[in-house]
């Protein structure tokens, strides 16, 4: 982005499926020193459309500020596609969900930051600036959870995130990965990842075993005789 008074302005694409949140973030960024909201998108797929448009206009943003759970294409699924097409663009996740598994998935996909939506506005700006410098910025609460996970990782059903418990219940109901994706408004790839994580964490080798665990733990009722 062009410099302003000798300072490079960091262009940001704001991605969130909630219009009030999206426009509020864009309005705040417009008032932040050295940061400019160059465009908005309603989900990961729309983000790719907007990035293509901005690239043709020579206005490609330095940072994408993106929600995690969105219809059509969620944020984590979008990270890989964004980085594959625009390797110089950095992605910062801003979400209401701070489960360790989501954070891991985002960082493994290439996210340069992970913030919760109750973060202070100044921290959002700090994360954007850090990402533009090539650094990784984590919400303090998220960083704390990651540390506790490394020090004393939970086992069994306690190791599953809330989303993974939901996925386990859907697996027990006999839903395929595609059906789980449709049920939870996530991509097929994300659904497969969730199922894989559930089986790995519970040390199971099949979906049938997962169904039995779900019944035993009361996540779903046993089949009627």
From TrEMBL:
Cite a single Pfam family from the UniProt record.
Answer: GerE
Q: Which residues carry this modification: 4-aspartylphosphate?
A: 67
Q: What is this protein called?
A: Response regulator transcription factor
| Domain annotation HTH luxR-type: ranges | 153-218
Cross-referenced Gene3D superfamilies? 3.40.50.2300
Give every Response regulatory domain span: 11-132
Which InterPro entries does this one have? CheY-like_superfamily, NreC/VraR/RcsB-like_REC, Sig_transdc_resp-reg_C-effctor, Sig_transdc_resp-reg_receiver, Tscrpt_reg_LuxR_C, WalR-like
Q: Which UniProt keywords apply?
A: DNA-binding, Phosphoprotein, Plasmid
On the tree of life, the source organism's domain of life is: Bacteria
């Amino acid at each position: 982005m062009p410099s302003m008074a000798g300072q490079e302005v960091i262009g940001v694409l704001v991605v969130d499926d909630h219009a009030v949140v999206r426009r509020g973030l864009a309005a705040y960024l417009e008032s932040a020193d050295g940061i400019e909201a160059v465009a908005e998108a309603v989900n990961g797929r729309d983000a790719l459309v907007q990035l293509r448009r901005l690239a043709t206009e020579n206005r490609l943003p330095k940072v994408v500020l993106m929600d995690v759970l969105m219809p059509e294409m969620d944020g984590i699924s979008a990270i890989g596609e964004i980085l594959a097409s625009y390797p110089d663009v950095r992605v910062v996740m801003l979400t209401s969900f701070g489960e360790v598994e989501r954070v891991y998935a985002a960082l493994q996909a290439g996210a340069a930051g992970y913030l919760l939506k109750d973060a202070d506005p100044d921290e959002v700006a700090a994360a954007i600036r850090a990402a533009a410098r090539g650094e990784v910025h984590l919400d303090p609460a998220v960083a704390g959870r990651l540390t506790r996970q490394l020090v004393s990782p939970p086992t069994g059903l306690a190791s599953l995130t809330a989303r993974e418990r939901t996925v386990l219940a859907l697996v027990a109901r006999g839903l395929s990965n595609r059906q789980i994706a449709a049920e939870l408004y996530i991509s097929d790839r994300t659904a497969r990842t969730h199922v894989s994580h559930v089986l790995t964490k519970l040390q199971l080798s099949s979906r049938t075993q997962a169904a039995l665990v779900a019944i035993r733990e009361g996540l779903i009722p046993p089949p009627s005789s």
